[in-house]
Amino acid sequence: MKKNLFISIFILIFASCQSRPTQPAYLGDTETQESTHLFTSDYEIVFDEVKNAYSEVGLAVKKADRFGNYITATRNSGKGFTTSTMNFYPVSNGVRIRIVTKSNAAEKPLAEVNEQIIANTTKKLKGF
Hints:
Layout: H1 2-16, E1 30-39, H2 43-56, E2 60-65, E3 70-76, E4 81-91, E5 94-104, H3 113-125
Antiparallel strand pairs: 1-5, 2-3, 3-4, 4-5
Helix pairs in contact: 2-3
């Protein structure tokens, strides 16, 4: 009986001494940026121009699903990854988009990805 009690206490002591896992230093802090915008153009045109806008800001389109209404693009800058996902919501007067971009906080030029994509897409759509 005393032997079982000793083993139980021994196990409890070691189980309570585990440390909490911490985030590795190389991942750094991340920033999340969310934006919405309404384009008053046709869905297919907006979808194609957004794909071009992603490449203009240096992100590679990894997944583009016209029927699933989303585009995902990424970039490895050496300081960390930037991942941006845009969802498309067709409405009666155009297309509403929602962009969620996560980037490394140390990568300052990519912190404004959403605004750059919206500005580049708007500029291209004025030609239509």
